[in-house]
Structures
1.
Amino acid sequence: MEKPITTLYSKYGTALRYLIVGGLTTGINVVLFFGLTHLAIPWFWANIIAWVLSVLFAFIANKKVVFNSADMTFRTVIKEGASFFTLRGASLLADTAILFIGLTLMHGSPLIVKLIDQVVVIVLNYGFSKLIFA
């Protein structure tokens, strides 16, 4: 007889692992974004740098931890990496648009705007990641 936790993990383990990795990725993105903007780097460039580094982390963590993708051949990693970064590029467009509207047009609080932005990005990225690794 399976234990309830084992049953739940086998059913929702991928989503749980994705949420944990997504939380870490979001943390990396937000910390880098605010660190860079505090160094007087404009929000647009701070966001691009934070995006590149957090997406690189997300690619590795999603491949290995979330979706248990074992194929590490050069060809597969390049193919998956290109797909991952391309689809995440679509969420970067949403990310940039939300920041532009929230920070430039509405003069909103950078923290609130960035957190709203990250919620939207996480939802988009989950769907994109399932297309690549699942």
Note: The chain has a mean pLDDT of 88.
2.
Amino acid sequence: MSSRAMTEPAFFILTALLDAPRHGYGIVAEVAELSRGRVQLKIGSLYGALDRLVGDGLVELDREEARQGRLRRYYRLTEQGRDALDAEAQRLAANARLASARLRDQRNPITGAASL
């Protein structure tokens, strides 16, 4: 992925594809479950995000299947996608640790420290 920050929908799409290839509606459902309903993808925005992720080499087409007269495209995570997801998860965890430490410090100031 390029140097731009990973969006929350992209993060959850990559996470949804970790364990198995999925088609569009399968990705939408898995993202909703993983995010506990916070991220609700619309099909149009999903395919826009998938196009970007494919273009960045993070996701690729796994297969196409005809089902009830419609073509279903299944997508899978690439190794580059797995690496990008791992890096983003580490970045988010480091940010969370930093914020948590600062919150703890603010709640429990060292006694005798000069106040501003």
Note: Helices lie at 8-16, 24-34, 43-55, 79-107.
